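We were asked to recover a plausible sequence for a given structure. The inputs and outputs are reproduced exactly as logged, with field labels preserved.

PROBLEM: sequence recovery
POSITIONS: 180
GIVEN STRUCTURE:
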């Protein structure tokens, strides 16, 4: 039995993952998992980690974490820094979000690139020893491996050092993220 119809469902944009006017810019990005994660890193900043990037959020910036959907995130990115979304922003010019934003943006770009992708919520055991913290990650279908691969597109090099992570955020092991 072929999985194609099932996988095609995860290639199509949804309510939260449509590009709505940003398709040309997204199309300009490389179609590689690492490049998509780097794009997400360069556009978003986690509200709870802003200080680690040397950013003090101005009053009201925390409200950005209430944005829903990729179009809202990308419009806010343009308001903060009127340059193509493909250009990495300085941390103070990134859209403030939480793990959900990173996962949704990752899935949206991967879908636009033709990969089946989805968002998973669950519990990560790699941020704080001995604890499973609620968290969202992206997941894409790796055709060559014939399996879904978890990607934590929130975790960049700074966060890897901050949390002393040895795992590869582009291939999070299943025992390190428990799907809810």
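RECOVERED SEQUENCE:
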């Amino acid at each position: 039995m072929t999985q194609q119809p099932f996988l095609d469902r995860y290639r199509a944009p949804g309510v939260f993952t449509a590009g709505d006017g940003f398709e040309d810019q997204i199309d300009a990005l490389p179609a590689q998992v690492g490049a998509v994660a780097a794009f997400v890193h360069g556009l978003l900043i986690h509200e709870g980690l802003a200080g680690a990037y040397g950013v003090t959020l101005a009053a009201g910036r925390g409200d950005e974490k209430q944005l829903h959907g990729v179009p809202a995130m990308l419009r806010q990115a343009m308001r903060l820094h009127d340059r193509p979304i493909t250009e990495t922003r300085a941390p103070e010019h990134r859209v403030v979000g939480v793990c959900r934003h990173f996962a949704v943006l990752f899935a949206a770009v991967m879908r636009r690139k033709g990969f089946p992708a989805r968002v998973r919520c669950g519990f990560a055991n790699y941020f704080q020893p001995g604890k499973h913290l609620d968290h969202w990650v992206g997941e894409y279908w790796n055709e060559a491996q014939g399996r879904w691969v978890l990607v934590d597109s929130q975790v960049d090099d700074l966060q890897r050092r901050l949390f002393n992570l040895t795992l590869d955020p582009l291939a999070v092991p299943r025992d390190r993220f428990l799907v809810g």
